[in-house]
Amino acid sequence: MSQPDLIIHDEKDNVGVVVIETTKKGQECNAWIMENDKSIKVNSTNAVPLGHKIALKDLKEGDTILKYGHDIGKVVKSIKKGEHVHVHNVKTKKW
Questions:
Q1: Which contiguous run of DSSP H or E holds residue 41?
Q2: Threshold 0.90, pTM exceeds
């Protein structure tokens, strides 16, 4: 496998974490799934900075975001596969 652009911690995750400086719009990203040492490809639909998340599948309003195999929030605005996942389209369930 080539150097990963994204890391996915758990096979159930629906987001991957960017581990390069930034993805470019239209970039085919190599994503490494740590749990089973597999890899997948995801096309980034926009520039996403280091440490931010990219959707691994289409997500609709109300869906749960899974990262590290854990619920980290809910979708408040539909997200397409490959899009930036951040505070503009996800909110915590704590408040």
A1: strand 38-43
A2: yes
Locus of tokens 């190599």: 30
Cα–Cα distance measured from residue 79 to residue 57, given in angstroms and rounded to the nearest whole number: 8
Which residues have C-beta within 8 Å of that of residue 4, sequence separation ≥ 6? 19, 30, 31, 32, 39
- Distance, CA of 85 to CA of 36 (rounded, Å): 23
C-beta separation of 46 from 20 below 8 A: no
CATH 2.60.120.20 fits 6-91, yes or no: no
- Residue tagged 């998340």 (tokens): 53
Q: Strand 28-33 vs strand 6-8: parallel, antiparallel, or unpaired?
A: parallel
What is the residue extent of each domain of the chain? 6-91
Q: How confident is the model at residue 1 (pLDDT cuts 50, 70, 90)?
A: low
- Over range 12-38, report the average pLDDT: 98
